[in-house]
Design a protein that fits this description.
The complex is a heterodimer of chains A (479) and B (166). With 479 residues, chain A is mainly alpha-helical. Chain A has one domain. In chain A, helix 2 crosses helix 19. In chain A, 50% of the residues are buried. Chain B has 2 domains: 33 residues; 93 residues, Ankyrin repeat-containing domain (Serine Threonine Protein Phosphatase 5, Tetratricopeptide repeat), CATH 1.25.40.20. The radius of gyration of chain B is 27 Å and the shape is elongated. Classes of the chains: A mainly alpha (479), B mainly alpha (166). Chains A and B meet through helix 1, helix 6 and helix 18 of A and helix 1, helix 2 and helix 4 of B.
Chain lengths: 479, 166
């Protein structure tokens, strides 16, 4: 356009994308916020966070809490949020759940920054990729995380932040910032290693912001982390550390040990391949192939068909982009091609983290990068339209409309899944402080006071009973 | 010169706009529905949410145990018959006790939960509840209720008034 700088033209699509994302994300944040504090993985961590006289003593002690995990910031953050609730007078549910919702908003914002919507054609690609981001099963699994602070979302935020930094021209503060993000992610959960993986992939793909000093510094941080784990005698959970599926059946940890403990290699290969297949085709889930179950029982659920078709279509697009754009060689890759390579590499490496067991949350970082790859592939396809015949253009449009429609349907279902989760989570509190089981009540007065406070807050929290939601939703949105 | 059937350069921008709009149709539809729901919530209409005036029998009928607990702890009588909206446990709207609603829904754990929190299972309520359980085809509830009955209790549906007529 004449008389206007190009940045003004870029602003409109960027603002429109932000507006679209905000209007879809904020109601979703509300659904995340409505889920009460969970009993299963949250209550204990919160109580522990409050038990220690100082943050330092908690930090020192938390290193010894488990023989297979090293997650000191899990308890520290719970402690800080407790103190935040005291200082502000807000309820504990408000403070803890607001952070869950805020992390989800941060993920969406970082995704927007990462894909860089600048042209009108980007908006069309965004219209497909954004529902992919929200609708992929790993995203819903991440939002349902039961920890007091959503550690998988924190790792996702750190990983996307590193990816965004790698797209920028190098700055002096990038190495320390990347190290800080990695150290923080590693201190909340083992999947934090994905932040290092993203940094390495960015460097290998030649992204300009990821300098050698950043890579070396990040590798040193990872090395120190591994040394600390080793010094504290913390091992990684092996097969049998967690339940996981095989074929059409979900096995308990004991069953897995019996079945695969002596010869684990085949099961490890199954898990790694299954993790990647889960990202690319939405099957298996937690290691279980619903297709195998449908084969036995006849008639698959509609949710399975919707998930499979949408994922296959998008994965086909990603493969098409890779085949048509990457064969020119690394030196000739565009910035977008490098982003695409990083996204695909992160998915593959993330799948390898499933070696011992498959869990949707573990591949949640891969799910974020799947959406990035989808954006690049869709935009790549749209850019070919002017060179194509009208019939081909119409068919491509129809294909993308259908794909976007299916993903949008999946994404809308996240509201249902979260509300269902809120109902179940609220009802879990029934078992806490039961009047007829006073012998199970905490003996420590402070612990009892916190437990009672959270329970009282949860009881008055309004949630949606599945009975008041559409009856068909289970078949179309819940696997 | 553009080959036949291929979009020419001047048409490209228009074509891309049309294409973009078509591809974005589904997300925009979602956006509109989402916006309508948010606006509806602002004016007090909350579809897909548990109604604020949920009665105790309704909470029992939809197996909302924490809501049952909340209402009982706030002083609601666990034996009082109240309205149960149509579609929750029966096609029509009826007045029934929380225990009757739980039996009508066929949920043994809710029956036990209610009994545990003060709902009466005694000589006055047992015949009706047993009769409902039998009629509903809920053998687990029937067996559980029989265990509560005294040894000389002779169950029968004669003279028992059902809370519904359909």
């Amino acid at each position: 356009m004449q008389g206007r700088p190009p940045s003004v033209d870029r602003l409109k699509p960027a603002v429109l994308a932000l507006l679209l994302a905000a209007l879809i994300t904020l109601p979703l944040a509300d659904s995340v916020f409505r889920v009460p504090i969970q009993v299963s993985d949250s209550l204990e961590a919160i109580v522990i966070g409050a038990r220690y006289p100082s943050s330092w003593s908690l930090l020192a002690e938390s290193a010894q809490f488990s023989s297979t995990t090293f997650r000191p910031m899990r308890y520290e953050q719970a402690r800080w949020l407790l103190q935040g609730a005291e200082a502000t007078g807000l309820t504990l549910n408000t403070v803890f759940r607001a952070l869950h919702a805020a992390l989800m908003v941060m993920l969406v914002l970082l995704f927007l920054v990462a894909i860089r919507v600048r042209r009108w054609i980007d908006i069309a690609a965004f219209a497909v990729a954004f529902p992919v981001l929200i609708g992929i099963h790993t995203f819903a699994a991440m939002l349902q995380e039961a920890f007091p602070v959503n550690h998988f979302a924190e790792v996702g935020v750190c990983a996307l932040a590193v990816f965004v930094l790698a797209q920028q021209p190098p700055r002096w503060f990038f190495p320390p910032l990347i190290c800080a993000l990695l150290a923080f992610a590693l201190s909340v959960i083992e999947s934090g290693a994905m932040v290092w993986v993203v940094a390495i992939c960015c460097a290998a793909a030649g992204m300009r912001g990821m300098t050698r000093s950043s890579v070396v510094a990040a590798t040193v941080v990872l090395g120190v982390y591994l040394l600390v784990r080793n010094a504290l005698d913390i091992s990684s959970p092996g097969i049998g550390g967690h339940g996981s599926g095989f074929g059409g059946t979900f096995y308990s940890p004991e069953e897995l040990t019996r079945r695969f403990g002596a010869h684990p290699l085949g099961f490890i290969a199954y898990n790694v391949a299954g993790g990647l297949a889960s990202l690319l085709f939405s099957e298996p889930r937690q290691g279980v192939y619903s297709l195998a179950i449908a084969w036995k029982t006849g008639g698959p659920h509609p949710v399975l068909i919707i998930n499979l078709v949408s994922s296959i279509a998008t994965t086909a697009l990603i493969v098409w982009y890779g085949v048509t754009h990457l064969r020119v060689g690394r030196a000739a890759w565009s910035d977008t091609d490098r982003m695409f390579v990083v996204a695909c590499a992160v998915m593959v490496v993330n799948a390898a983290l499933n070696a011992a067991y498959i869990k949707d949350e573990i591949i949640s970082v891969g799910g974020l990068f799947y959406a990035v790859a989808a954006f690049i592939a869709v935009r790549g396809l749209l850019e070919t339209i002017p060179q194509r015949r009208r019939v081909a253009s119409a068919l491509i449009t129809l294909f993308l409309m259908t794909d976007a429609g299916l993903w949008t349907f999946r994404a809308a279902g996240v509201h249902y899944v979260l509300r269902y989760d809120a109902f179940k989570t609220r009802n879990d509190w029934i078992e806490v402080l039961r009047p007829d089981k006073r012998e199970d009540w905490p003996t420590d007065p402070q612990e009892l006071a916190i437990t009672r406070r959270i329970r009282d807050e949860v009881i008055v929290r309004s949630v949606a009973s599945p009975s008041f939601m559409p009856r068909w939703a289970d078949r179309y949105w819940v696997e | 010169m553009t080959a036949p059937g291929i979009v020419s350069a001047p048409e490209t921008k228009v074509a891309q706009h049309k294409l973009g709009s078509a591809v974005a149709a589904a997300p925009i539809a979602w956006l509109l529905v989402s916006t309508v729901l948010v606006i509806a919530a602002w004016v007090g209409y909350r579809p897909f949410m548990t109604p604020a005036d949920l009665t105790l029998p309704e909470a029992a009928g939809v197996r909302d145990h924490l809501e049952i607990l909340r209402q009982i702890e706030s002083g609601v009588d666990p034996n009082r018959a109240e309205r149960v909206r149509s579609g929750l446990v029966r096609p029509g709207e009826y007045v029934m006790t929380p225990l009757e609603a739980a039996v009508a829904s066929g949920m043994l754990d809710t029956v036990q939960f209610l009994q545990h929190h003060g709902a009466r299972v005694d000589a006055t309520t047992l015949p009706g509840l047993l009769c409902f359980a039998k009629q509903q085809g809920a053998p687990d509830i029937e067996a559980y209720l029989r265990q509560q009955a005294p040894a000389d209790f002779a169950p029968g549906c004669k003279g028992v008034r059902l809370p519904w007529t359909d």
